[in-house]
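Recall that a protein's primary structure is simply its ordered list of amino acids. Everything else, from secondary elements to tertiary packing, is in principle encoded there. The following example makes that idea concrete.
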Amino acid sequence: MNAFSAINGGPGAVSMAVASGRVQLVTLRERSLDLARWRVLWIVAAFAFLALIAVMRISYLGMNGAEARATTLADALLPPRGEITDRNGVPMARAFPAYALWFNPKALGEDGEPLVRAPEEVAAKLGEIFPDLDQAKVARQLAAGKQGYLRRRLLPEEANRVQEIGELALEIPMEEDRHYPQGKMAAHVLGYVAADGSGRVGMEQVLDEHLSNPDTRGTPVALSIDVRVQGALEDELRRGMKLTQAQGGAGIVLDVDTGEVLALASLPEFDPNKIDKDGQSLMFNRVTNQVYELGSTFKPLSVAAAIDAGVVRDLGKRYDASPVKVGRFSIKDSHAMGPDLNVVETLIHSSNTTTARIADELGPERLRRYMIDMGMNERPHIELPAKGFPIWPGEKWPRLRSMTVSYGHGIAVTPLHLASAYAAMVNGGVWRPATLHKLGAGEAPKGRRVFKASTSSRMRQMLRATAIYGTGRNADAPGYRVGGKTGSAEKPGGKGGYRRTALVSTFAAAFPMDRPRYVVIAMLDEPRGTLASSYQRTAAWNAAPIVGRLVPRIGPLIGVRPDDTRDIDISAIKPLIPGAME
């Protein structure tokens, strides 16, 4: 029965079939689990492989890349280059992210054509965006496949228009840019930053380490410059140049008690935001690097030396005003001034002959010593790298050389030399070096004494009288008590001698003369006689008016307000000035 049942598919056969099915299900389940495990392992292995590649790449860059950089939050927040400000915190130079236009001829591969359109067509489209672009030059660069900058500074809207051209080879990288918010203002003071990131020419070069060092670049550097005074000085110098068709101009405003430079201008100027060949040709600084024979502006310095040395004790003493003959040379005045002049008249009328005779009494050695004390024998003292060396007469001055130096010939210095010397002459007699750094209270250098305080007091009277009654009348701004001296010197010729048609016209001034605070120098290089200057080329008609317009503009800005109720007392010398007592 059992056997029959088994053979014919009884209950026993059913049980065996069920058991066999369960075994097969278990086997399939194990195989599925094994497959899942392998898949997980493969995925883990793939991720591990990718992680290993990433680690190897990082290690490679760490060993072969640039030097490690700080990644602190403080470092990330620092500007790439420090900021320069004026004395009141107004930014004059700062760094910020900017776009550039770069031509990459390999943008579509080594063998692909860099441009879809013709180079001339691409250049024309760029010219529509940048009207000042040299399209011919850009077209040549594109045609030659020469990679490089097409433009260093782009506005965001300009960058968008470049992208709309649709040329992949026109790339717009983001770079760190040096920007000068005041444009061309104070260009010779600031200088610029070259493509390699280093400062050039001005304070950018002087302060390069401070501005680029991570430890110091976060602190702005305050200069002594006041942008309000700087702007006014440049504006008036530019106006004076245009009115007289001069080829150049220079000016400086100097604090007589500290040596701080509030403004320094050399015209024509360059644009530090756009350095090109034309800009490089204008980088020469007329104030600190170019030396000139500054003519009659030296006469007060020579008279001060004679008074200080005790050679001139009586300002009323008469000096022969006829030509001075020394060997085969003769010193003359530009026009007849009478048979004789006293010391005050010598400065008021700007006489070469009587100044030469005063210097002759002083003697070459003593005059030379005073000039040395005023720094006339060395490069000007200021932080700028470009500083001209004076044309100095040497160790032993013959009699004639001493006479010519006394009225500003035979010696050539920078306008900055003259400014520092005038500061010493009017501030009580102490010479101090000029500086472009803002100084705090008590930080002014002690300086060195050149003149007695009594000498300085007497010179203030005579400079004021010159502005009231003499050649400086066009500089006498009402209420500001200006004092100063003109200087009109012929420029040396190429083969010796002087060019009678080429003058350097200078006015050296200080104000207010009852308590001098600032020296102002205005100089024009080769002005012409025009209708604006009454067809005269001398400083009384072109440089002096610049000071006369400038002082009222800057006075209230720097703490000197006009006051018609006060002035320096010149009653002691008025009797020596014909017509002054009327």
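The longest helix spans residues 11-64. Residues 231-576 form a domain with the Beta-lactamase fold (CATH 3.40.710.10).
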